[in-house]
């Protein structure tokens, strides 16, 4: 399978979804239940780090519909999507999908970064901020 999912850290605050070309939306659908179960297995918020470094330059057909459907999943503890190594074409499609979702009254929290280390730093900083806020209020 050209798509994999794994926890990025022992605290289970980030999942890494890795795409390696060639891949298909059928492969994504095959793993989507695993992603859903991972989110349901914890109560804390989770960043979904989507590593596209090796996803290839060809984006499968119907990407906007697939992105819309992926974002429409009712996962209450998704903090944000962090796209790693996305091509400029993918980022443009993501922006369009985000605008579409926003027009329908939804919201999409995402960032695009160049490396997996940047994504991990974002997640780590958020966890430190949560600890700091907890100490202030607790």
Structural class: alpha/beta
> How large is the radius of gyration?
15 Å
Coarse morphology: globular
Number of strands: 5
* Helix share, percent: 40-55%
Report mean pLDDT, rounded to a whole number.
Answer: 85
Distance, first to last CA: 45 Å
Main beta sheet? 5 strands, mixed
Strand order of the largest sheet: 1-2-3-4-5
Along the chain, the helix and strand elements come as EEHEHEHEH
Catalogue the unreliable spans.
none
Oligomer: single chain
Q: Strand portion, in percent?
A: 15-25%
Contiguous helical run count: 4
Describe the structure.
- This protein is α/β, with parallel strands linked by helices.
- The chain is 46% helix and 23% strand.
- The protein is built from 4 helices and 5 strands.
- The chain has a 5-stranded mixed sheet with strand order 1-2-3-4-5, with helices on both faces.
- Strand 4 (78-84), helix 3 and strand 5 form a beta-alpha-beta unit.
- Helix 2 packs across helix 3.
- The protein is globular, with a radius of gyration of 15 Å.
- The relative contact order is 0.16.
- The model has no long low-confidence stretch (mean pLDDT 85).
């Amino acid at each position: 399978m050209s798509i994999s999912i794994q926890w990025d850290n022992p605290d289970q605050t980030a999942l890494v979804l890795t795409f390696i070309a060639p891949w298909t939306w059928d492969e994504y659908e095959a793993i989507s239940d695993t992603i859903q179960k991972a989110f349901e297995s914890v109560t804390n918020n989770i960043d979904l780090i989507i590593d596209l470094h090796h996803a290839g330059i060809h984006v499968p057909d119907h990407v906007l519909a697939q992105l819309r459907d992926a974002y429409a999943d009712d996962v209450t503890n998704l903090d944000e999507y962090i796209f790693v190594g996305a091509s400029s074409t993918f980022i443009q499609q993501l922006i369009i999908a985000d605008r579409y979702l926003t027009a329908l009254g939804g919201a999409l929290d995402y960032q695009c970064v160049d490396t997996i280390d940047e994504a991990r730093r974002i997640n780590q900083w958020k966890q430190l901020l949560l600890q700091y806020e907890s100490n202030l209020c607790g």
